[in-house]
Amino acid sequence: MGVNGIKTVTVLLTATVVVLFFMMVSASCGEVSFVQGDNAIDVMINGRRVTSYVYKPELTKPVLFPVMTFAGTVVTRGYPFEDIAGESRDHPHHTGVFFTYDEVNDTRFWAATASPPKIRQVKITGMKGGSDKGTLSVILHWEDMNGKPLLEEKRIMVFRPGVNEYSIDFSMTLTALDTTVVFKDTKEGMFAIRVASWLQEKDGTGSYISSRGAETAQNIWGRRAEWVRLEGDHNGGKVGIAILNHPSSTNFPTFWHARDYGLFSANPLGQSVFEQGTGVENPKPFELTLKPGKSALFRFCMIICDGPRTKAEIDKRFEAYRK
Predict the structure, then answer these.
(1) pLDDT tier at 84 (50, 70, 90 boundaries)?
(2) Whole-angstrom distance, CA of residue 226 vs CA of residue 167
(3) Is the pLDDT of residue 29 over 90?
(4) Residue 189 and residue 254: Cα distance in Å, rounded?
(5) What CA–CA distance (Å, rounded) separates 108 from 95?
């Protein structure tokens, strides 16, 4: 082989190594692991806690709390778990990241701060870490004022590291047990995060934008969108949260219960209330009804970001997510 041939082979080998390196980097941005504690499971990425799944007996629902970015910025409000000076103390039922609803056969799960009613963890069905993702699966029972289980929830949470971000893919399947369950249309639901004071739109630095191009909570509240992003300034940089709704999810695309005081919630079941509140003619009730043994799927992806994310960037993420 001549000198030119050797140079060509060397260049090709170098290029191949570079391509393989970047393939490995893109395929695995972090190691996900879980640490079992006392009624809590810490979620670790590269040995650093990013959140904890908390299911203490005194809670009326399991939550993710606190939620932090890779850089360690806490994006959830501390109250009522932590006393932080200057932080708002309204709505004590807004705790971390949570999934619940207010009018389920006349049982008001959403605003409950003492049980009953209660969404109670029954069993951890899976807890597996890995180099590209970690999966935590649980079974929950939604118990009414008499302690009777109305619904069984199978929840799967998949944690995926990314570049200056991580995502959590939530899949919640609700199945009616031995009685018909009716979800009345209400704004008080459903998949939500209560954000830190600095990230809220009112008296903070936060700003909302939706997949439909709407901006501010006032223009997003009660309207459908495939995704919504909330972004704010913290310690000289941008920090954001995006929630994406999967097309397989019930009543897609979801309505949004986005508030300027820091509640960031997707609510696909409040249809007629939202349509009435936004001036839609002839609002149509959705009133999800599950007969015994029947199920409904709710699926969302939450992305926790260090650094800014444009609408075009989130649009691309949504297209990948929906596929």
Answers:
(1) very high
(2) 16
(3) no
(4) 11
(5) 16
